[in-house]
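Severity: low
Component: inverse-folding endpoint
Summary: output formatting inconsistent between runs
Steps to reproduce: submit the following structure tokens with default settings.
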């Protein structure tokens, strides 16, 4: 978390204690990712976070939820507009919302990796070390969900390098 955000959060730690603690624990890069068991608590956090960041000159425009009642509460408080049909229709075929580069299916509430671009790239099948390393770095996994799989690939590449196998 950046020093600026930490500073702004400290200013509000007494006034909005729960929200500041929530934000401190749930800010990742430039996203706030978290959940709450009750709509009224989630709404309070939303409104207070908007106030805190608004005072710092930072807008929070990308609110997302899979709860129709929470979405309605946002609309009633002017947090979001009706322009986003994703919330109203919960269409199964709507584009995925990305969280830290990982797709989120809000209708069914699960995270998944959108691998279409990776498959397109890998299908070029160039058998060089450079190409295989490029395959590996195209797997964006900041949370580490795919660690057990990418670790195996990294280990294989390391073994090939240590064996001195030339494949360029």
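Observed output (run 2 of 3):
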């Amino acid at each position: 978390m950046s020093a600026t955000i930490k500073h702004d959060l400290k200013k509000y730690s007494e006034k909005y204690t729960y929200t500041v603690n929530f934000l401190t624990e749930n800010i990742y890069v430039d996203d706030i990712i978290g959940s709450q068991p009750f709509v009224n608590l989630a709404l309070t956090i939303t409104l207070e976070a908007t106030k805190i960041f608004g005072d710092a000159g930072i807008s929070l425009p990308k609110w997302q939820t899979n709860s129709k009642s929470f979405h309605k509460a946002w609309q009633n408080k002017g947090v979001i507009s009706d322009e986003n049909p994703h919330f109203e229709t919960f269409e199964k075929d709507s584009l995925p919302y990305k969280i830290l580069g990982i797709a989120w299916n809000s209708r069914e509430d699960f995270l998944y990796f959108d691998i279409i671009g990776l498959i397109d790239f890998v299908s070029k099948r160039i058998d060089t070390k450079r190409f295989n390393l490029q395959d590996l770095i195209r797997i964006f996994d900041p949370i580490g969900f795919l660690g057990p799989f990418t670790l195996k690939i990294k280990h294989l590449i390391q073994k090939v390098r240590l064996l001195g196998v030339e494949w360029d």
